[in-house]
Amino acid sequence: MAGKVELRRATLRNTMISKAETRITANGLKNLRARDLAKDAGCALGAIYNVFGDLNDLVLAVNARTFKRLGTAVADSLADAPQNATQQLIVMSHGYHRFAAENFNTWRALFDIERAPGQAAPDWYLNEMGQLFAYIDAPLSVIFPEHTAEDRALLTKALFSSVHGIVLLGLDEASAGVPAAQLDEMISLTLSHLASKS
Amino acid sequence: MAGKVELRRATLRNTMISKAETRITANGLKNLRARDLAKDAGCALGAIYNVFGDLNDLVLAVNARTFKRLGTAVADSLADAPQNATQQLIVMSHGYHRFAAENFNTWRALFDIERAPGQAAPDWYLNEMGQLFAYIDAPLSVIFPEHTAEDRALLTKALFSSVHGIVLLGLDEASAGVPAAQLDEMISLTLSHLASKS
Are B178 and A157 a contacting pair at CB < 8 A? Predict the structure, then answer.
């Protein structure tokens, strides 16, 4: 049975995650300071490190929420997609683009978080990523029935990374001169070529 | 005729760029501090701002050097490439991967530099990017002779962004679970699919 102390701790944990989410949404991961969060949550600075160990772990908790929302957004976009496998890939990728554009700072935090060299991603992260990959794998297995599961897994990751790259450089217009308005067209063009067969 | 003052200023400028390049190479853009650079260059802190306006402009000067080296690396990889257009795209992309892996911190600085919202990239950056795009456009015009120049320009940017995304997430292994050892294979797989025609 959870005692009062555990309950208060769980409440404080949720408060901190929400406050950190609000700060990241408004100002980006780069400007997140423990001092500000303690003030937002009405607690001592030390309480954050008491609950989360370090600020990175708190950001990971925010990222877990973002990832869930991203998964939902991609699944929702699929609901209206035509029964054509290539079109499904395109619709999901446009959904990814839309999510990134509408949640720019929290989306960037998914990838900009610091990791010690060689440190693996946490299990929940790999699970959420695996779910996203499953959405991509399904249409790919229709388009390329001759591929082995291993080849398809590699293509799935390559495809995700490709769309991520297009969205990333596209949303940072100055980076590659990619006009944001043409982003969806670029995604469609790339995926149509990718899914066409020789 | 350049006087002594101009000459000294130009020398100091080059020294600062080299010192900043060394620091970025060793510790990444994130850990670059004006204070350290002034010490490295044996000058007052104010001298940096006197020559460069701000630290960002100094990083841009480092990035200009990196971009030149990147262009050379991609061009060099093409020299040994087979006369097959798809293979040329693959060879260049592998060259891009190799450059990114061997120059990780300076390569990241190309994309991680801060820009004020809406601020365009400087002309030299767009010129270097244009040169890279020209390398990609050539084989694409062989593979897709029916495409308009406009379509091809969009596909070129999409292709660059795709390979960039694969390399970026691949070199940050924790991000997408992409095994670094299979990066080149992923690139080959993606580009082979992309270049195949229905």
Answer: yes
Q: Taking the domains of chain A in order of start, what are their residue ranges?
A: 1-53, 54-196
Nearest by CB to A166, from B165, B182, B185: name it. Answer: B165
Q: What is the pLDDT of residues B119-148, one digit of tens each?
A: 777 788 788 888 888 999 999 999 989 989
CA pseudo-torsion sign A104, A105, A110, A112: positive
Tell me the two tokens of residue A26.
Answer: 């408004």
Of the candidates B104, B113, B115, B107, the one whose C-alpha atom is nearest the C-alpha of residue B132 is B107
**Prediction ipTM score:** 0.85
Predicted TM-score (pTM) of the model is: 0.87
Residue A136 has a CB neighbour count (10 Å cut-off) of 22
- Span B54-196 CATH architecture: Orthogonal Bundle (1.10)
Residues A1 and A17: their CA atoms lie apart, in Å, by: 24
- How many A×B Cβ pairs under 8 Å? 132
* B130: nearest Cα among B71, B60, B198: B71
Handedness of CA B86, B89, B95, B101 (dihedral sign): negative
- Is the separation of the CB atoms in B189 and B166 below 8 Å? no
Q: Does domain A1-53 have CATH number 2.160.10.10?
A: no
**Signed CA dihedral, A145, A150, A156, A161: sign only:** negative
Residues of A with Cβ-Cβ distance to B195 under 8 angstroms: 193
Rounded distance, CA B162 to CA A147, Å?
Answer: 21
What pLDDT, in 10s, does the model give residues A61-105? 999 899 899 999 999 999 888 889 999 999 999 999 999 999 999
DSSP A118: T
